Amino acid sequence: MVLTAAEADGLTVDGQPFGGEVRLAADLGPASAGRVAYRERRLVVLVREGAWGVRDFDPESPARRGVRRSARHPPHPRWAVPGRTPYDTGRTVRVPNPTCGSAGSGLGRGAS
Question: Which portions of the sequence form the region Disordered (predicted)?
Answer without folding.
Answer: 55-112
